[in-house]
Amino acid sequence: MKAVGSYVWIWLPGDGNPTLCGFLRWQGRAADFAYVKSYQTNPSAISVLPDWSLTKGSDSLYPAQDDALPGFIADVAPGRWAEFVLERLNGAKANAYEQLLQGVHARTGALEFGPSHREPPSDDGSAFDFETIASAVADLDAERPVDPRLRAVFRHGPSLGGRRPKATIAIDGEPWIGKFCSVQDRGPEPPRMEAFGLTLARDCGLDVPDFKLVEAVGKPVLLVKRFDRQSGGRRHHVLSARTLLNLSERQSLTDGSYVSVAQQLRRHGLRPDEASRWFDRMLFNVAIGNTDDHPLNHLFGWDGRHLSLMPAFDLEPQLSAAEDRLHEMVIGRAGKEGSLENVLSQHAEFGLRRDQAEERVQRMLAVIRSNWRQALEMVDLPDTSSVRYALMASAREHPATRGDNEGEDQGASMSM
Ligand SMILES: Nc1ncnc2c1ncn2[C@@H]1O[C@H](COP(=O)(O)OP(=O)(O)OP(=O)(O)O)[C@@H](O)[C@H]1O
Ligand SMILES: [Mg+2]
Q1: Where are the beta strands (DSSP E) in 115-273?
Q2: Does 212 contact ligand 1 (Cβ within 6 A)?
């Protein structure tokens, strides 16, 4: 196949308009990236990655083995929901490059792709009301025919990552993401569970985006405000934990590690406490049983000099995984095991002494213990044993919290 390609545009920090940055060359199975000359000589330019400086000359950045796109581009490429949408609408599978070119102006982060090196890709800005978007998503998810006039709804929807049904929605002129129910859901409705996770995270002092639980077409929908968009058309350039660790998609199944990310944050972090705030993320995921914490579920802002933690998202106690409590990322010396001992096992890597790390554990568990019932009520979910188990097992294991359940009015097994 003949090589084809797209120009890559980037919104530089503080700039409301994109700058031509590089060229993505698609060669049939994979695409490589190189900066364009005008970018390399631009004094405001930033490197696209911490370890891939502007002085790379004509070097190309190749994807990791087996992957189709370089990591920093895969981070902002459509995910599995988008793949499903495109296949349903077009009746054919799209390759990674074709998928990437969909959904201009809605993708996460500060990159865009287009055919011209003179004109950035433009946005025709067609808007639909929330109910219309919700019913189009529901039709598509249930594999019902979608009204041809509504196909444009997905011009923006499919550009986002992740596997769950979602769409970009404007609320009072600001971009939010709607996360919907699916006909395939079993158990508690995921938008409610995720709102529960976000509520507890906010209570625990984690940085989370604004969110609200609403209803559309008779089902709950979680609305999450986009944290990669700023006023005046500015955007944050973001990288996933997978890209920070330079992992291929396949490697990221086994080699994603909180400690390795902490090392990067200590090297490039914007704030001195960046690594310890990252410790809290890991701790929170273990404490609520959010085992679906894979490396694409963590994003970092990169401004060419510093990395910063972007707000936490996709936080949800995983009820089915509560039994084995194995996380998607390595937690500590005991691998992916979701226990508090494991969380504490490499505290120094997060810039914390043992006593400081333990104090953070105690403080977070105390907040969860006192707030989880109210948080469940707020999202209208019943207090079931599986929710309790997802929340509790890790707290039970920790010697310091053993016996906490004395006097607990919800039953002898309660420890949070
Ligand atoms: N508030 C937000 N602002 C900007 N980008 C976001 C936000 N929330 C999520 N994203 C981006 O969208 C992607 C998909 O979101 P999310 O992880 O919530 O979806 P999901 O379908 O539940 O994912 P998964 O496949 O992990 O279950 C994320 O990987 C991230 O790149
Ligand atoms: Mg996700």
Answers
A1: 166-171, 174-179, 211-216, 219-225, 238-240
A2: no
Coil, helix or strand at residue 49: strand
Q: State if residue 351 touches ligand 1 by the CB under 6 angstroms criterion.
A: no
Q: Is the CB of 313 under 6 A from ligand 1?
A: yes
- Using CB atoms within 10 Å of the CB of residue 222, give its burial: 0 to 12 exposed, 13 to 18 middle, 19+ buried: buried
Q: What is the 3-state secondary structure (H, E, C) of 104-128?
A: CCCCCCCEEEECCCCCCCCCCCCCC
Q: What is the pLDDT of residues 137-158, one digit of tens each?
A: 999 899 998 877 777 777 655 6
Cβ < 5 A residues, ion ligand 2:
162, 297, 314
Q: Could you report the per-residue pLDDT of 153-180, keeping only the tens digit for each?
A: 776 556 788 999 998 888 888 999 999 9
> What is the per-residue DSSP string for 373-396?
HHHHHHTT----HHHHHHHHHHHH
Topology of domain 130-223 in CATH is Phosphorylase Kinase; domain 1 (3.30.200)
Which segments of 289-353 does DSSP mark as H helices, in order? Answer: 340-344
Of 337, 331, 336, 340, nearest to 359 by C-alpha is 340
pTM given for the model: 0.92
Q: How far apart are CA 90 and CA 87, in angstroms?
A: 5
Looking at CATH, the fold of the domain delimited by 237-401 is given as: 1.10.1070
Ligand nearest to the CA of 314: 1
Please tell me the distance from the alpha carbon of residue 20 to that of residue 18, in angstroms, as a whole number: 7
Segment 387-412 shows an average pLDDT of 50
311: left (phi over 0), alpha (psi -120 to 50) or beta: beta
- Cβ-based neighbour number of residue 204 at 10 Å: 21
For the chain, domain boundaries: 4-114, 130-223, 237-401
Instruction: Grade residue 101 by pLDDT with cuts at 50, 70 and 90.
Output: confident
Closest atom, ligand 1, to C-alpha of 190: 22
CA pair distance 266, 270, nearest whole angstrom: 9
Contacts of 324 (CB under 8 A, 6+ apart): none
Ligand 1 lined by 314 (C-beta under 6 Å): yes
Coil, helix or strand at residue 129: coil
Q: What's the gap between Cα 349 and its chain centre? A: 23
Residues 108 and 327: their CA atoms lie apart, in Å, by 25
